[in-house]
Each structure stands twice: as C-alpha cells, then as structure tokens.
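Box 3.1 A note on notation
Throughout this textbook, protein chains are presented in two layers. The first layer is the amino acid sequence; the second is a token string describing backbone geometry. Keep the layers aligned when reading.
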Amino acid sequence: MTFRLGAVELRRIALPLVSPFRTSFGSQTERDILLVRAELIDDDGGRSEGWGECVALSEPSYSAEYVEGAQHVIATHLLPRLRIADRLEAADVGTLLAKLHGHPMAKAALEMAILDAQLRARDQSFGDFLGVTRTTIPSGVSVGIHDTIDELLAAVQGYVDDGYVRIKLKIEPGSDIEHVAAVRELIGPETPLQVDANTAYRRTDGAHLRRLDEFDMLLIEQPLAEEDIIGHARLAAEVETPICLDESLVSAAGTADAIELGACEIANIKPGRVGGYLEAVRIHDLCRHQDIPVWCGGMIETGIGRAANAALAALPGFTLPGDISASTRFYAQDIVVDPITITDGHVTVPTGVGLGFELDRPYLDSVTTGTQLLT
C-alpha cells in the first residue's frame, strides 16, 4: 500500500492551563496550539486521516520557532515540497524537507500527521510500529517556578499525593538552591529529583551550580545556552550531578557530537525539537549504543502529542521517568476522548491504531480559533 498526499488542514486551538506555568524564559497561562490534519490517499483511492501537533510556543522564547511562523512555513514552504512526491510516507518527510533549513517543530508536526494517517490506514498502533514491549511507563511531573518556597512546596506535595514517581523543578538564578533544598527535604532522599534551567545560567556559574550536588539529583538539565556545547562539557567536569541536554539537541548528528565532547551525560528527547518521531528514534538508538540514559521531555502537549510520547518512551533506552504527566496536570479538559492518566505513578502505553488517540470532536471544535484548508 502506497500513498499520496491529499488535503491538509491547519487548525489553531486555544486551551487555558489549569494554573500558570513559569520557567526561566517566561510564564504561560494558556496555549495557542497549531494542529495539522493530513489526508493520505492510497492506490485504490481509499482515504485515511491523521493528526499532528506542533509544539512551538506563541513567541520565540524556548526556540526560534513560534506558532504563527510555523503555520506560515508549513503552508508556504514545507507543504509544497511534500506535494511533489508521487509516493509519500512518514519516512519520506525528512528527506523531502532536508534542503529547507530549520523549523524542526513545523516539520515534526507534518511528519506526525502523516505517520498517524499511515498507521491508521494499515490498522497499526504506534507502539507496534516502534516494536515496544512495555505496557506502562513511569510518570514524572514538571513543576514551574513559584514566587515563594511555601507555594512551591504546596504544589510539589500535591503532585506527590497524585502519585508521580519523579519531580522536576524549573530553576533560575535566585530560585534554585534554597528551593531545591526545601523540596528535597519534603520528598525525602528516595524520590527521584531533577532540575531544569532552560539555559538560565552561564559558564561562570559552575561553583554555584556545584552546590546542587549535595541534593543527590538525577540531573541538571540545560543549564547553559543551547549553542554552548563546550561550556556544558566544562560544566560536566566541574559538577558531580550529571548534565542533561535539552535545547542543545536538535538532531542525531548533533547529539553524537555533544556526547563525544563530554557535554551530554543524559539526553532529553523531545520529538518536536528534533524534527519528528523518526529522528527521535534515531537519537534513542544512538544514545542506547553509547550507554547514555535518555528520557522523554514534554512541551505541554495535548492528548495527541501525549499519546505519541507515551509510546515513544516505551522504547528500551528510555530508562529515566519522563515528563509524560496526566493531561489534568495542564488542562481541565483535553481534546481527546480518553486523556492520559496515571495509575500508581505510571502511564499506560496507548494501543489504539495510529498514534493512539481519538479526538473529542465537539470539544475540539469549541476551542478552535481558526482553520486553513490547503488542497
């Protein structure tokens, strides 16, 4: 069965967050999300529909991409490249778009929609496509920066009560050492703890970050600027807590370089950041071969991306709990029929066809702010 590309719809939705989520690069109270619906047409004229989710934020703060720009580049530059192909599968997307520089989140959303449609046409789940055998994965939670330590502790206690098996704290200068110390005392020495700086520190902060070693954490995530690979290598030699890269890792080739330079002791794999789930699998395979632990990061996805991430994180190299939390961590209501939940600190790997979700169409329509149909 081979396919060609049919209609593509770009849909914008607005979802409020259940509480503000603050990191070192800003605070979010709602998400403006770009969804991609792609139609594949098979040799007999049969049609299948798939959905992808672009994880770009509203402004270029986490990365250079942002929602409005992603929609423009998909419609104007990426999609025309895919339409010239006589035969199209998810594995072809990266090659067809390779000559267009950057925009990994936009490319990933297209690949994701085509992959979902391809799997649905073949009555196959994403887990089966990947060859995963695990049925559940451990669930960690990402805790934003709070104005006071008391507020932070109240939030963390709530997530502990919810059963999350790992706590990740967002940090920045002025909201780091004392906050981590208080949380470690609250959760005790047995609960895995890690921090995420989102590039908030500089090379000269090594002595300061070394103070975090006493809290026996899993890792320090992305302390320095994304392009500062050498700085991360030097910091890894200066602190005992393993250095994990996030924003710095945008491809398998770049990940290999970071590992060789000693800058990446642990890898956070985010499919949207690296251009799609197929590149994410290649990075997983590379890290597994190099004995580099990996975990699946999150970008406040809806149930579309959350289901796909759960299947990806069931691959054997994902040995650390990821940021695949329950949908209710961020959204009072999700756009899928069966949102991700946690039971005994774990998420069940979806087994449904495609990426493993079914849309709540009435609610999706109610939160839609605009559509663009491209034929």
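The chain has a mean pLDDT of 97. The longest helix spans residues 104-121.
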